[in-house]
Amino acid sequence: MDNRSAPASRAPSAHLGKAARLRPTARNLALKALLLLDTGLTVQQALARVLAAPQPGRPKDAGPQELTPAERNLCSELAYGCLRHEIRIAFVLEQVLSRPHSLPRPMFLVLSLAVYGLLFQEKVPDHACVHQAVESVRSLYGTALSRVANACLRTVQRRRDDFSTYCFYKEKFNSASADSLFFSLPEWIVELWNTAYGADAARLLLQRSLQRPWSALRINATRGEARALHAHFLARGESVGPWGVAFAPGGLPSQILHRDLRQWEESGDVSFQAAGSQTILDQLGLRLWQGPVWDACAGFGGKTAALLEWGQNVRLATDASLSRLRALPGQCRRLGLPAPAIALADARRPPLCRWEGNILLDVPCSGLGVLARRPDLRRRSHGAVAELARLQAAMLTRAARLLQPGFCLAYITCTLNPAENEKNIEAALRADTGLRLERQWQTDHAHPWLEGMYGAVLRRV
């Protein structure tokens, strides 16, 4: 029951070739994005690809940019929503089809997108969901399977109240299985949260994992208009960190002070950064650090840029991914900030034998705190997460060895899993008596929308 999505029965390229026959509508582009996930792309990468590439049936110099903003948003909503509810949707198809997993992968996903529309998109008429899905199946596989699709979706329509009610699942399964199906999370995550945080907190986390994520901006504190700009944005959103503003789904303003938001971004006055990422830096007190900073898992450089804007002396940024790290110098230029030295390096094997300064260690993690934003992470296996915990421990051990007396190491994750959070810190403190825990912070489980973050600050004494 951990992952009910139909397995790909043929090579992903064959499925993509099949889907290329369809007109480039928002729904069909969402189908292509879901098929691209089978090739190993993340949902963000898949959507970026299908919304950027020229599509069959359009002039060669005109791609999906011809889609209206509403169509592009619909494409993203369909892909994200279908992934967010993937386990429940697959279960629903099992109830109305005798062998749904034997269907061709593109057809299974066409039906999944339609079921998502029927169960979760109140503003989309039922007849539109059914008709578009049936026509897509007819175009791909002919009349016989289109009749199967029509009968399947009509049955989902009739039984929608059952499939939308938690009691339906609770009456059929034990609590963990019912939660897994209704909230579309693998049972191992349901059991992990219940064991680690208790039933009440686990239920809050399950509910939060299904919410549409909030958007957030960070105002560049080094700019002359920063305070005025922050005040104008704050009138429409919620404050996060010292210079951040978060917006409810659909609430991100497209224009402020007579300029488009993209213009503010291009000029370096604002940056997109998740609310949780800004909050954790503030809660751990990194604005008050004294001395040079090394960002040992810099990624695209969002936290490096935030610290630089707040006046921190970030001297070095390293990461194991060149594709991520190469974006940092350009980001610093856009923001008008001094770029730190950058180096391609695994945090377990950094190009240093000593570091006289503070260390930021934002480790790779399972992402269980950002499932609303990254629904494809629901597909992670328990074994893969255990391996991540071992990787994090190795990174933390190495960084701690380089930490000099009087300086601090901040350990950060965006997950809700004690094995990746508190237990790694406890192990580091047991192994190295020269470390002291200065502070520890985790997102309140009852917070309705903030990403689930964890952080701890260790000082070398």
Q: What percent strand? A: 5-15%
Give me the count of strands: 13
- Poorly predicted regions are 57-63
> Strands across the major sheet, in which order?
9-8-7-10-11-13-12
Describe the model.
With 461 residues, the protein is α/β, with parallel strands linked by helices. The chain has 3 domains: 12-162, N-utilizing Substance Protein B Homolog, Chain A, CATH 1.10.940.10; 215-272; 277-460, Rossmann fold, CATH 3.40.50. Helix content is 48%, strand content 13%. It has 21 helices and 13 strands. It has helices at residues 12-19, 26-37, 43-50, 69-84, 86-96, 105-120, 126-141, 143-158, 160-163, 166-172, 175-183, 187-197, 199-209, 226-234, 261-266, 275-283, 302-309, 322-325, 328-335, 382-402, 422-431, and strands at 215-219, 238-240, 244-247, 255-256, 259-260, 270-272, 292-295, 313-319, 341-344, 358-362, 408-413, 435-442, 454-460. The strands form 3 sheets. Strands 9-8-7-10-11-13-12 form a 7-stranded mixed beta sheet, with helices on both faces. It has a 4-stranded antiparallel beta sheet with strand order 2-3-1-6. Strand 4 and strand 5 form a beta hairpin. The chain is globular and about 70 Å long. It starts with 11 loop residues before the first helix and ends with a strand.
